[in-house]
Inverse folding.
């Protein structure tokens, strides 16, 4: 916001303006424009809708200085605080125009720039199963700029801790050496609330919160990643805003939200009714129209003006920073029709951009319903992929809760429900789950087995900050501790440096780094098909590679990588017939992972010996 506009707004606020109250009914006053969303746009892009925030806008006439551009439609709130201006086009070439508001008492002018579009080499690359994603909660990773630490108190579990965008940029060496190719950061929206360090309670969807740094810092992070051949994924939240957002008490339109602060429904997280053709609307309403946690104002995407605002907002962040992908928060809580238009418009502008959505459910029949290409429960959302929550919950069941390993095989059978199961993003944990290593029944050995599966199974793996160094933690906020060594006043050893990590930290780090090195060296683990050779109570064996319905004699069949995981407390010896499997006619090329394990081929069968609580990987051809 320009400094003059901030001063004007402050003066207005002192005198009781800027709220939802009706303007004083006395002498007409000249219009004032305080802010325009988006703050800028680009030449030769789709036509924008400008949302003007101000005072005394009721009755004003609007126009723009470029006579080739017209305002096709105008909508002004009754209290004169908001004006929506729909332009007929974006100019063919970059320029700065003036937006003018005029009434009988005077006029106001606001500059608006149409810039040159970013070149595709500066981003928009998308991500795929070839990549490894690393989730960072910006406030909890590293403090790279002490000047933006106002209000920071690291003793408060739900307070601001000082992590920022510069802190991430300063530790890209660590991430790249670990084997990460894609960085997902939580939202960077302005969150002017004491406990909104996480970024999910926006108070301005077009500003970087001062605690995280600046828009320039975000661009620097993106550029630094791209220079390394890495990618940036930004968390975005079209479902809701924070309770302190100016809209919460003063919406631009009466139906800008589903309900009001005083009268609304509470969001419910059972998504089954959305996928049930027999469910009444009464069972579905509170999923897509409820206020999350009973406090986050739920945006009404059925309103075309809201839909336009949110779609433009995504475009703005993608174009400004050169993003490679979006992580979309609370995906099922928004109606499918909105997602269909939103994803279609973003893919039209950025064909390689990848979007992954949060669908927090253990049920693959529900999870798959939100993937692109699925229309069995309504229109196609267009979402490239949801996260693989069903595999996460099943991993917990089989490794921590005594479920048989065959339960994973039973789940992966449901991959047939996804048009693109290879796009699924698998994980061991995130900022909304307890740390796997801290779950009841978990051990470092079981965590290693879980990492072996996540980093070698089909799809793209995602690692949550600190899991690679065995960070502990229970439910939120205990699962969101600061990364050791990322903060100047930390009393913990610096975990960014191998020399100062603890023995336990180095042991887990080296395990994860080793698996990622293996994954990078073998394309079968990145893009190969998956075939399950054995799944019983304690053992899971699967093979990755191409043309797996044929054996090694098939033309261009390439390498097969066999992964074996044994969760039993005793060694296991397995014999798996090769006939009519991906290993028919194959021989052992070399062991790749694991100690005291053996792979042999004899009499048209594969013999595998694997120690207790261990994993082993071998290459076949």
């Amino acid at each position: 916001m320009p400094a003059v506009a901030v001063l004007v707004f402050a003066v207005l606020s002192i005198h009781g303006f800027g709220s939802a109250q009706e303007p004083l009914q006395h002498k007409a006053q000249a219009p004032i424009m305080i802010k325009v969303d988006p703050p800028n746009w680009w030449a030769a892009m789709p036509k924008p809708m400008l949302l003007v925030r101000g005072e005394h806008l009721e009755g004003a006439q609007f126009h723009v200085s470029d006579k080739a551009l017209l305002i096709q439609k105008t909508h002004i709130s009754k209290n004169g605080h908001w004006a929506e201006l729909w332009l007929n086009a974006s100019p063919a070439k970059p320029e700065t125009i003036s937006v003018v508001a005029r009434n009988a008492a005077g006029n106001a002018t606001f500059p608006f720039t149409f810039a040159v579009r970013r070149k595709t080499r500066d981003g928009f690359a998308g991500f795929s199963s070839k990549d490894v994603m690393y989730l960072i909660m910006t406030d909890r990773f590293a403090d790279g700029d002490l000047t933006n630490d106002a209000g920071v108190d690291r003793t408060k579990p739900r307070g601001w801790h000082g992590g920022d965008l510069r802190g991430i940029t300063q530790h890209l060496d660590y991430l790249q050496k670990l084997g990460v190719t894609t960085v997902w950061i939580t939202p960077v929206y302005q969150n002017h609330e004491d406990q909104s360090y996480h970024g999910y309670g926006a108070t301005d969807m077009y500003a970087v919160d001062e605690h995280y740094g600046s828009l320039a810092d975000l661009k620097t992070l993106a550029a630094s990643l791209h220079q390394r051949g890495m990618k940036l994924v930004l968390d975005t939240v079209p479902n809701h805003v924070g309770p302190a957002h100016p809209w919460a008490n003063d919406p631009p339109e009466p139906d800008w939200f589903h309900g009001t602060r005083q009268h609304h429904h509470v969001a419910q997280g059972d998504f089954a009714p959305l996928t049930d053709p027999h469910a009444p609307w009464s069972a579905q309403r509170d999923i897509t129209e409820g206020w999350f946690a009973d406090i986050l104002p739920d945006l009404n995407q059925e309103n075309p003006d809201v839909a336009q605002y949110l779609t433009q907002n995504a475009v703005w962040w993608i174009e400004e920073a050169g993003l490679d992908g979006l992580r979309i928060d609370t995906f099922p809580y928004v109606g499918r029709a909105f997602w269909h238009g939103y994803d279609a418009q973003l893919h039209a502008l950025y064909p390689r951009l990848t979007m992954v959505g949060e669908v927090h459910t253990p049920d693959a029949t529900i999870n798959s319903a939100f993937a692109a290409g699925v229309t069995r429960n309504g229109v196609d959302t267009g979402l490239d992929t949801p996260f693989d929550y069903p595999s996460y919950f099943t991993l917990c069941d089989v490794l921590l809760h005594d479920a048989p390993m065959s339960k994973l095989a039973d789940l992966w059978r449901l991959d047939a429900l996804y048009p693109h199961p290879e796009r699924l993003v698998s994980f061991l944990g995130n900022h909304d789950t307890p740390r796997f290593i801290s779950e009841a029944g978990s051990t470092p050995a079981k965590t290693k087995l879980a990492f072996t599966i996540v980093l070698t199974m089909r799809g793209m793996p995602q690692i949550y900050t600190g899991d690679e160094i065995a960070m502990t933690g229970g439910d939120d906020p205990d699962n969101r501790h600061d990364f050791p060594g990322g903060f100047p006043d930390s009393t913990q050893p610096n975990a960014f440096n191998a020399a100062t990590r603890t023995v336990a930290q180095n042991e887990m780090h080296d395990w994860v780094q080793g698996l990622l090195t293996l994954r990078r060296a073998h394309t079968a683990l990145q893009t190969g098909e998956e075939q399950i050779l054995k799944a019983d109570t304690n053992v899971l064996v699967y093979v990755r590679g191409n043309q797996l319905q044929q054996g090694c004699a098939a033309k261009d069949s390439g390498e097969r990588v066999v992964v074996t995981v044994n969760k039993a407390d005793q060694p296991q010896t397995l014999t798996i017939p090769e006939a009519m499997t991906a290993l028919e006619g194959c021989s052992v090329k070399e062991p790749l992972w694991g100690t005291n394990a053996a792979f042999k081929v004899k009499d048209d069968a594969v013999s595998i010996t694997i120690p207790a609580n261990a994993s082993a990987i071998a290459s076949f051809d």
